[in-house]
Design a protein that fits this description.
Elements: H1 2-5, H2 13-18, H3 28-51, H4 58-88, H5 97-133, H6 138-141, H7 144-167, H8 172-202, H9 204-208, H10 212-244, H11 249-255, H12 258-279, H13 281-299
């Protein structure tokens, strides 16, 4: 979505003159640093799950899916910065075929990051729901085979949708589809939460006997969801304003915060791993083993 990701190339002079809000610009070095940090943090999450058999369970596979989504969001900005550097150094022809193709690939990664996050959070919500209200049947319902199948279908759909959205990005139905997935995900999770609340009221004693880890997982999901909404909602609003009122001075004023909204997206990839680590003793133990084992191997 080149016209969305680089909006100021598409806001005409009328919108700019009618708005008293100059674009809020942030240093590219700041974007690059936060993106690198997000990449490293989420890579550590993936390595912790891969290297520890006790973490190779459906719940952590779903968390890995969300970590991959965050990594794609960080990688998008890193590659974009590298592309800009090469263009400024004269190694790339502006608006050339290579740059256009690279832009499309990078934009696909950005869209894939959002779609992957939406579906990963949704499947985590479904997993928490089953954990709480079907605890005895959980291991029969959520098997590793079904987990791998579900994640394969999700990422196949996300990749196909990401490519299609970039190809047809200048069509309004594409933008509406892109932005509608965000509230649909919220609606799905809110419906699960509403049902969980109603069941919790009627089965209060049963819920109180569940392991604390089950309820802790639901709280972790709530925190992840809150951070996701806070970090991505401003950008989704930007896309809608860019599509439907690009010449309105009030819309142009909000769109002057585009880089701030982009920074929030980058921060999401940095914050999520801290939530995992803070909420999961198993992951903290895995991190400690990775660090101390590496130190031991280095000293010997």
């Amino acid at each position: 979505m080149r016209h969305v990701i680089n909006p100021y190339e598409n806001i005409n002079g009328t919108a700019r003159n009618n708005s008293d809000c100059p674009p809020v610009l942030l240093p590219e070095e700041l974007f690059f640093t936060i993106s690198i940090l997000g990449m490293v943090e989420n890579l550590i999450i993936l390595l912790a799950v891969v290297r520890n058999k006790n973490l190779q369970a459906p719940m952590y596979f779903f968390i890995c899916s969300l970590a991959i989504s965050d990594m794609l969001g960080s990688l998008y900005k890193i590659l974009e910065n590298i592309l800009i550097i090469f263009r400024n150094m004269g190694y790339l022809k502006p608006r050339g075929s290579f740059e256009t193709t690279a832009d499309d690939i990078i934009d696909s990664m950005f869209i894939l990051s959002l779609l992957g996050s939406i579906f990963s959070l949704s499947v985590i919500a479904a997993d928490r729901y089953i954990t709480i209200f079907h605890a005895l049947q959980y291991h029969r319902i959520v098997t590793m085979r079904r987990t791998v199948l579900a994640l394969s279908l999700i990422w196949t759909f996300c990749i196909g949708s990401g490519v299609a959205m970039v190809i047809f990005s200048h069509h309004i139905p594409t933008v509406l589809t892109f932005t509608s997935l965000f509230p649909l995900m919220l609606l799905f999770i809110l419906c699960l939460y509403g049902h969980m609340f109603l069941l919790a009221r009627s089965h209060a004693r049963k819920i109180s006997t569940l392991p604390r880890a089950n309820m802790k997982g639901a709280i972790t999901l709530t925190i992840l969801l809150g951070v996701f909404i806070f970090c991505w909602a401003p950008f989704i609003l930007h896309v809608l304003l860019m599509t439907f009122c690009p010449n309105n001075p009030y819309c142009a004023c909000y769109m002057s915060l585009f880089q701030v909204n982009g920074m929030l997206i980058m921060c999401n990839a940095v914050i999520d791993p801290f939530i995992y680590a803070f909420r999961s003793p198993e992951l903290r133990d895995a991190f400690a083993k990775m660090i101390f084992c590496n130190k031991y191997q280095w000293n010997h």
